[in-house]
From TrEMBL, chain A:
It holds the Pfam family ABC_tran. It comes from the Bacteria. Residues 11-239 form the ABC transporter domain. It comes from Aliiroseovarius zhejiangensis. The keyword Phosphoprotein does not apply. InterPro entries: AAA+_ATPase (IPR003593), ABC_ATPase_HisP-typ (IPR030679), ABC_transporter-like_ATP-bd (IPR003439), ABC_transporter-like_CS (IPR017871), MetN_ABC_transporter-like (IPR050086), P-loop_NTPase (IPR027417). This is ABC transporter ATP-binding protein. Belongs to the ABC transporter superfamily.
From TrEMBL, chain B:
Residues 49-240 form the ABC transmembrane type-1 domain. Keywords: Amino-acid transport, Cell membrane, Membrane, Signal, Transmembrane, Transmembrane helix, Transport. Part of the binding-protein-dependent transport system for glutamine; probably responsible for the translocation of the substrate across the membrane. It comes from Aliiroseovarius zhejiangensis. This is Amino acid ABC transporter permease. The keyword Signal applies.
């Protein structure tokens, strides 16, 4: 735990363990993510991937170990500093796309409406759906909804973006449009942690790939190593299985 | 639906009472508006609408406000904040309306006087307070279950864009809960309208009290109570129609 330097890393997890009652979901997770780094997390269902990103987003609490973001505890982060994109989008269905986007900037940051709208429109351009601003989320396709969700997080000007299987709920033809947006974001230097099984995306974008199994962070490798010579048999097996599909 | 339901209900009521009755059973003259005496009687009865409606509306509004205030702590993180919610709901729900009405009307002024407040509770406010408090336990539960029915991801998304829990409730959760809350809330309003009849026992001249008074002088309980039932029926049907209109409007808003 001595290596937690103030703000040296974007994310530092040291010996983090978490239980649900007496079921241990995370075992001794130790992980650092650098500024601007793109980390992909993969692993079988139930291995604890969501739990890791939810911890970083402040949506869960852990029992043992330390988590620091930019040298500070998770609950000391600025409002909206850690963006999160969910598998199920979680857009606000009663608000228009534009209102989904300006809610955070106006209420959490106290930004004037006009400025929030300008910012929202700029991010809608970036995710390539400015023409949908007036619609309700329910009127959009899944891919469009997920892009709105990404834009909604970006409107808070986050330092770190978390993605929990952002394309798993999408039809195949919509996966690409969401991944494209994420790749753009990666190119712009955003620090990203992304739970995904899109290995093509991982190969193109990830600086490192983390493999989780049964609550453990089994290994973390650069993609060249992960895809050619994974160290553990479990990771090799897992890659074998998902790359076949 | 409403359009056929009202006549249908009226018809079956008349059929039920009229067909089985031997000649001479009915004496509608007592409320026949074409005779001076009947006119006096029927206007006396119909004037009860004013009190029944005022009591019901005020009680419903108060019940919604109390219910929301009682429901919100149920979502607090702390067990100690959630406890008063449970106690209030369980306690109030257990008290039958009539005893509570007596307690408020006859007992509460004594309590107030003992702490130096010289307040008289008249039948009108006694009825409003009792109905509001009694109903608020149910309203609170309606709010709670409506709020709980909003998917958890909504609150989580609100948190990740930096909203406080109170802001998330106000801008994200409550607006979505409203559409789930409205139908059961309307049912509660109908319940309040019907329960307001109890106000008659503490001397409030609403629909039921006026019917009772007229029965005592005219000895025509069948006609007068039949009319009384129809009066409530009309009120309730108007409320249901209003609620359906509101629901349609909200559905239209949602898919806009
Ligand atoms: N609220 C909870 N209460 C109890 N157990 C939970 C809870 N949330 C998750 N778990 C359990 O914790 C384990 C890890 O869950 P998690 O969602 O992090 O897995 P995951 O790797 O994201 O899986 P998936 O690929 O299916 O999304 C699972 O076994 C799950 O059943
Ligand atoms: Mg998951």
């Amino acid at each position: 735990m001595a290596n937690i330097n103030q703000g040296k890393h974007a994310v530092t997890m040291a010996q983090v363990s978490k239980w649900y009652d007496d079921f241990q979901v995370l075992r001794d997770i130790t992980l650092t993510v650098d500024h601007g780094e793109k980390l992909v997390i993969c692993g079988p269902s139930g291995s604890g991937k969501s739990t890791v990103v939810r911890l970083l987003a402040g949506l869960e609490t852990h029992q043992e170990g330390t988590i620091k973001l930019y040298g500070q505890p998770v609950d000391a982060q600025g409002r909206g500093d850690v963006g999160m994109v969910f598998q199920q989008f979680n857009l606000f269905p009663h608000l228009s796309v534009l209102d989904n986007l300006i809610l955070g900037p106006m209420r959490a940051l106290g930004m004037p409406r006009q400025e929030a709208r300008d910012r929202a429109m700029a991010y809608l351009e970036r995710v390539r759906i400015p023409e949908q601003a007036g619609k309700r989320p329910g009127q959009l396709s899944g891919g469009q909804q997920q892009r709105v969700a990404i834009a909604r997080s970006l409107c808070m000007d986050p330092k770190l973006m978390l993605f929990d299987e952002p394309t798993s709920a999408l039809d195949p033809e919509m996966i690409a449009e969401v991944l494209d947006v994420m790749e753009d974001l990666a190119r712009d230097g955003m620090t990203m942690i992304c739970v995904t099984h899109e290995m093509g995306f991982a190969r193109r974008v990830a600086d490192r790939i983390a493999f989780m199994d049964a609550g453990e962070m089994v290994e973390v490798d650069p993609p060249e190593i992960a895809f050619s010579a994974p160290k553990s048999a479990r990771f090799a097996q897992f890659l074998d299985k998902i790359l076949k599909h | 639906m409403t359009k056929i339901r009202l006549p249908l209900a009226l018809l079956s009521l008349f059929a039920l009472t009229a067909c089985s009755a031997p000649p001479g059973t009915w004496g509608w003259y007592v409320i026949d508006p074409s005779t001076p005496a009947g006119w006096t009687n029927i206007t006396f009865l119909l004037r009860g609408f004013s009190a029944t409606i005022q009591i019901s509306v005020l009680a419903a509004v108060a019940s919604i406000i109390i219910g929301l205030l009682v429901a919100l702590p149920a979502f607090a993180r702390s067990r100690w904040l959630r406890l008063p919610n449970r106690i209030y709901v369980e306690f109030i729900r257990a008290i039958p309306l009539l005893p509570m009405l007596f307690w408020v009307f006859y007992g509460l002024p004594v309590v107030l006087r003992s702490i130096g407040l010289d307040v008289n509770i008249d039948p009108f406010w006694g009825a409003v307070i009792t109905l509001a408090v009694s109903d608020s336990a149910f309203t609170a539960e309606i709010f709670r279950s409506g709020i709980q029915a909003v998917p958890r991801g909504q609150a989580e998304a609100a948190q990740t864009i930096g909203l406080t829990r109170a802001q998330a409730m106000r801008y994200v959760i409550l607006p979505q809960a409203v559409r789930r809350i409205l139908p059961p809330l309307a049912n509660q309003f109908i319940y309040i309208v019907k329960m307001s009849a109890f106000a008659s026992v503490i001397g409030m001249a609403e629909l039921t009290r006026r019917a009772n008074e007229l029965v005592v002088t005219e000895y025509r309980p069948l006609e007068i109570y039949t009319l009384l039932i129809l009066e409530y029926l009309v009120l309730v049907l108007i409320i249901s129609a209003g609620v359906r209109w509101l629901e349609r409007k909200m559905n239209a808003d949602e898919s806009r």
